Amino acid sequence: MAGGIIYDTNFYAALEAEVNAFRKALTKRWRKEVAAACWENREFRTAFHRYQAPYGEDLWDYWDPINRLHLIYGPCEVVEWAEGDQQSGVPSCPGRINAPLSGSGLLFATDRYGNEVVAPSEVTCGMNSIMQHVEYWAHAEGSAVLGKLPQFDRHDQRAIEGAQQALLTIGSTLGLESAVDSDAGFTLASNTDLINKVAKLVGENGENAGWYTGWTGLAATTFKDGFFASIAPTLHNQAGIAASIHNLYSARGTIIQEMRSGSLKILSDAGKALDETKEITTDLNPMWQTFQGMGTALSIAGAWNPPVAAIGASVQLIGIMGQNFAPKIKQTVYAHDVESVITALWGHLDEQADDLFSRENDYNNGIHALRDAVFGLHSFNLELYDLTENTATGNRDSREFHIRIDDVLELADTCFECAAIYEKQLIPKIAAVQAADASLATADGSEGSADPKVKAMVVEYGEYLRTACGRLYLAGEQIKAAAQFYAATDAEAKAAFDSVMTDWDEPPAPGQARDWAGDTDRSGWKVHIPGAPSYVNDTTPGDNDTSGQGYETEATR
After folding, report:
1. Is the CB of residue 76 less than 8 Å from the CB of residue 125?
2. Contact yes or no for 59/127 (Cβ under 8 A)
3. What CA–CA distance (Å, rounded) separates 415 from 227?
């Protein structure tokens, strides 16, 4: 486990075990110091951070002059036990006083009131009760520490990693590439299937002369300037969003790991420091790490530039505990005396709490940055050209056209195939991402400020995929309908159409495709501008994106 991700889904039990070990070490060392203090007739600490009764506790009066004779001359079996290896339970001491006697065979002493009295040969030794109190104090100190520690109990790091891999599969299918400064160890899926098909619709075979010379006229112009022009930015942005959500899951996983490993390290080293027989060293295992660069890394990794004509995006991918989060080693250096150990322990716990607050804040800022970026994108650049918003009349001035039916039907077939990839390979992956929902939570298992927003972003992202899928199906239907419309103009075109239809193997678009094709509802998000008045944040999605195309014509006209 040292240095690696902690996958425990019952981590509180591990914390309790480490706290119990700390309690045991503290009890042993505290008993030794209390026994020495009693023998030397000085005060000792009865608490550091534990709750104490307002009037203290009723302890055996070891400072009483008669009782001190036992402690000095005893021997007190409890003191000897405490200063030894403390094996077995606390012994019961008979309270003997083996002090030198006077000539009369009696031992004279001064009692607590200043009276000279004959000392007894035995006292009722209460050192065993004090040692039992120490065990209680140490247990209560451990409880205070346990209450201070961030639990992160049932968070499932494997589920988070599964969500990350699902997002990478979606993103890489859409053309996502890992930037050169990404953390190592990522497995990107092959994107050749979808990308090769999309190449027929954009690039050389799309917006440019390849197919356009074989299909001119109203429908061709509509698809060239509208639907086909939206494919590259859509795939680019969808790939970038998948990568950014992936990095947010890395941030949550890193917070969990940092706090878990830090807690175990802080406690383990405190326990070792309480054992005087063990050497304390600053050459510590670098398990307690703080990720000072999380906010910066999320900001950088969440950014991708709008494409000119390129498909996909190159994004800096970050892993749980990844180097891009700028980990720094924190050394848990302890002195040997109990008070110094406890003081240092609580100093580390306070520092850890500050780290946790900062990480959660970075995580929250990361999802806000992503949501603001996505909110600003026009639907055209986010989920393809909206074929459902075309006018019914179209542009009837385009009367001259040229068409090769087989080329046009191949484009329709490609749209169907791309839609099927979305439907069967990408959209189902959202469920794999959401399988980690329970682990997107704060230390106590509740949703913090950021986690609900990340989950909502996943749901919204799934809607972008579904919308693009529906629009691809509709594009295939409309291109096919356009070919059929053109085929009705002459016998040669009709023959070509009928020939292709003989071997047509694409089923009709799913019945829900038109419902999917509507704009994704983004009304639940307000642009996050810290300190800005509400009217500034109350904007319409995509308003700031001037590169979205208007909706002008009906493609089948």
Report:
1. yes
2. no
3. 11
SS (H, E, C) 144-159: HHHHHCCCCCCCCHHH
Q: Is 526 exposed, middle or buried (0-12, 13-18, 19+ CB in 10 A)?
A: middle
Tokens coding 131? 């040692």
Pairwise CA distance, residues 541 & 539, whole Å: 7
Per-residue pLDDT reduced to its tens digit, 23-65? 999 999 999 999 999 999 999 999 999 888 766 778 999 999 9
Give mean pLDDT, residues 364-392.
Answer: 84
Q: Where a domain ends, among 130, 148, 166?
A: 148
Considering the domain architecture, whether residues 356 and 493 belong to the same structural domain is answered as yes
Question: What are the tens digits of pLDDT across the range 293-336?
Answer: 888 888 776 666 655 557 778 888 999 988 888 888 888 878 77
- Residue 65, preceding bond cis, omega within 30 degrees? no
The per-type count for the chain, helices as H runs and strands as E runs, is 18, 6
Domain coverage including residue 514:
157-528
Residues 138 and 166 in one domain: no
| Three-state DSSP state, 361 | helix
**pLDDT higher for 139 or 228?**
139
Asked whether residue 403 is assigned to any structural domain, the reply reads yes
Q: Is 554 within the bounds of a domain?
A: no
Residues 78, 227, single domain; the answer is no
**Cα Rg of the chain (Å, integer):** 37
Q: Are residues 197 and 252 in the same domain?
A: yes
Q: What's the number of domains the chain is made of?
A: 2
The answer for residues whose C-beta is within 8 angstroms of residue 312's C-beta and 6 or more apart is: 174, 175, 176, 177, 191, 195, 235, 236, 239
Q: Are residues 408 and 454 in the same domain?
A: yes
The total number of residues written for the chain in this structure: 557
Co-location of 169 and 22 in the same domain? no
Cα 418 from Cα 473, distance rounded (Å) = 8
Same domain, 118 and 170: no
